[in-house]
């Protein structure tokens, strides 16, 4: 109950389109994408050379061969580099579940507190065992 209240208060203070923790992860991926080289291979398809390996990225399908983008819904460093190449804002392709609207929908409800069992109405039925 108190967690929902504190998350609701936190949601009211948020600004932007995605949650702050996701924004931090996205910014980290954007910073790490500086070490990547992008080679366009076709319409929305890229070949990305990183420090460790080479990856194929399809920004239209939001897929990377490293599979981090598909697993998390947040563009990986390779995807972030391709989005930069295409001049697309990375927050646009972040999964909708990380939006502030989804956060508010999850924590915006109120959980009503229960009164003490001693003040509950008495019934004539048999007692309920726990």
UniProtKB/TrEMBL annotation:
Coiled coil regions in record: none
Keyword Zinc: yes
Segments forming domain SWIM-type: 55-87
UniProt xrefs under Pfam families: SWIM
Xref: InterPro entries: Znf_PMZ, Znf_SWIM
Entry protein name: SWIM-type domain-containing protein
GO molecular function, one term: zinc ion binding
Keywords recorded for this protein, A-Z: Metal-binding, Zinc, Zinc-finger
Membrane-spanning segments: none
Source organism (scientific name): Triticum urartu
PROSITE patterns: ZF_SWIM (PS50966)
């Amino acid at each position: 109950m108190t967690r929902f209240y504190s998350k609701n208060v936190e949601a009211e203070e948020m600004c932007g389109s995605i949650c702050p923790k996701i924004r931090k992860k996205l910014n980290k991926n954007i910073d790490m994408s500086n070490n990547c080289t992008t080679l366009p291979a076709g319409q929305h398809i890229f070949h990305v050379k990183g420090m460790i390996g080479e990856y194929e990225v399809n920004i239209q399908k939001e897929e990377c061969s490293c599979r981090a983008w598909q697993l998390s819904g947040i563009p990986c460093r390779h995807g972030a580099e391709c989005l930069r190449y295409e001049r697309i804002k990375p927050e646009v392709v972040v999964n909708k579940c990380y939006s502030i609207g989804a956060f508010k929908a999850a924590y915006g409800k109120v959980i009503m507190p229960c009164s003490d069992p001693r003040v509950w109405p008495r019934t004539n039925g048999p007692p309920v065992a726990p």
